[in-house]
Design a protein that fits this description.
Number of strands: 0
Largest sheet: none
Number of domains: 2
Oligomer: single chain
Helix content: 55-70%
Radius of gyration: 32 Å
Distance between the termini: 97 Å
Structural class: mainly alpha
Length: 312
């Protein structure tokens, strides 16, 4: 009987030969439409199972997670105390407590299992990309994830200020926030700040594909900065000026960093793709290339005469 290491080695050799034979039959790695749909279904099922497992694990730590999510509200109202009016969130429906547990667990499961479902999405897309496109994707993900995390951090800092603004508009009335409405506010702040922090990366990606150059960016800098603040005001659900300034000012700093990257990238592009007519003045005509010689036409034979008797 063969020992275990030799059996494993033999199975690996058979697998490599099978894969090599499949590549020879289909060198471009093309798949029919139904195979793509089947692959997408398998990836979606794996993502759903991973999120469910993560949500089940987060359900066990619901109290700690909810305390962390509720902290900005406690800072806004001064302190949190259970069953105290104005210092605790509440729900009115019979099933609202169960739904709140479920939503918090799913949010935690999505965050905890993010490496798994990001890998599943990448495994579905990667076979159709060239090596150069894969490198750009690595760069994009390696930059987008930290920027989104930075936006989440700033959102967490700005939540209590936004709640303070809303509480100041109560005009002497007691504000009662439901847990569901606060959770919606929390998610909107996280997503709004996270997407705003992706704006500089979006500009750099447009520059890399030569859609936006540094010269064009300089002409429209004031408008772009104004649009950044407009987008910050739309993305942030809190209309207080401190939150908008915190979000817009930070994004503007990142946009200026993106401008430096665009400037350096345009310099590199100019070195690799020199302009033949860069030294010509504005009123100087560019030289024309000599036209290619045209071959003489071949002589056409005279048509044969048509006999009148045969034509009739």
């Amino acid at each position: 009987m063969a020992d275990k290491p030799s059996a494993i080695r033999g199975a690996r050799i058979v697998g490599e030969r099978y894969a090599r034979a499949k590549r020879q039959q289909n060198p471009e790695g093309r798949m029919p439409l139904f195979d793509h749909l089947r692959e997408l279904r398998n990836r979606v099922v794996k993502i759903a199972l991973a999120v469910l497992v993560g949500a089940a694990a987060c359900w066990a730590f619901y109290d700690r997670i909810w305390d962390f999510m509720q902290r900005p509200y406690c800072q806004a109202v001064g302190y949190c105390k259970k069953d105290t009016l104005g210092h605790s969130l509440f729900y009115s429906g019979v099933m609202d407590g169960f739904y709140l547990h479920m939503k918090v667990a799913i949010i935690g499961g999505v965050i905890v299992t993010s490496p798994i479902w990001l890998y599943q999405l990448w495994a579905f897309v990667a076979p159709g990309l060239y090596a150069r496109e894969k490198r750009w994707t690595y760069l994009f993900l390696g930059t987008a994830v930290p920027l989104f995390g930075l936006g989440v951090y700033f959102a967490y800092l700005a939540m209590s200020r936004g709640l303070n603004f809303f509480l100041s508009m109560s005009s002497g009335l007691t504000a009662f926030f439901t847990a569901d409405s606060y959770l919606g506010y929390w998610i909107a702040m996280i997503l709004g700040f996270g997407l705003c922090f992706e704006v500089p990366l979006f500009l750099v990606m447009l520059n890399l594909v030569r859609v936006v150059t540094h010269e064009r960016f300089k002409k429209w800098r004031r408008l772009i900065i104004f649009l950044v603040f407009v987008f910050a005001g739309i993305a942030s659900p809190s209309p207080d000026p401190l939150t908008m300034l915190l979000l817009g000012g930070t994004v503007v700093v990142l946009v200026e960093v993106a401008e430096v990257i665009m400037y350096l990238n345009d310099k590199r592009w100019a070195r690799n793709h020199p302009d033949e007519f860069a030294e010509l003045s504005a009123d100087e005509l560019s030289p024309l290339e000599a036209p290619e010689p045209v071959e003489a036409p071949e002589p056409v034979e005279a048509p044969e005469p048509v006999d009148a008797d045969s034509a009739s």
